[in-house]
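Handout, tutorial session.
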Amino acid sequence: MKITLNNIAAVFAICFVAFPTSAISDENNMLFLFEEKLEHPYSNGWSGMLGKIEYGQADVYINSTGKSAEFDGILSINCTGSGHFWKAAGIGGENANPKWVKEAAPREVIAKARKAFCK
């Protein structure tokens, strides 16, 4: 199965999150989090959007575009501690290897998402 914005919205729906598909497809709702510098002159831009926050856990849609293949994922952040995990992720429209996903997003993306969405 290919990962698309609609598939990610469906995962949110399965997880009982009120997260309309129209919200994720609207890039204006995304908060810029980090610019990952690659070999000059290339970079990846990382953005996020809060899906829900409940019981100290924030589910955040994360998107990256740029030189590397396009990345989409749902990051669940423990706002009361330091933990996080990926509920779903894909790169270039394909499911991502779970081992690779742990290293896909730079630490700065997760730290800035925590700061922005865990308020």
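The second record follows below. Compare its token runs with those of the first.
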Amino acid sequence: MIYRFSLLILYNKTKLTMNTATITKVLKRVESASNEYSLGFRRLIALPARTKQSFDLAANLETKFDGQKALNNQKAFLESLTEKEFTNWLMIS
């Protein structure tokens, strides 16, 4: 998990961090998503496009481009974060 997180930061250094309005929108999208899906998947689909692209790249590099494994790792990572950790992660992504 730490390796994936480090890769995400590495690929996001060139873009600005998220502002509070964008973070609030992401959190509201997570809340409004159907509870039929796991928390990790709801957080994943709520991410802005640029953040999701960087996160996808980091996950794919970690799994050597095994798409299903990368998706499962992303969902597991996002689900393991507490609300505060998720908010902090959004701030730096």
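Points raised in discussion: The chain has one domain: 2-92.
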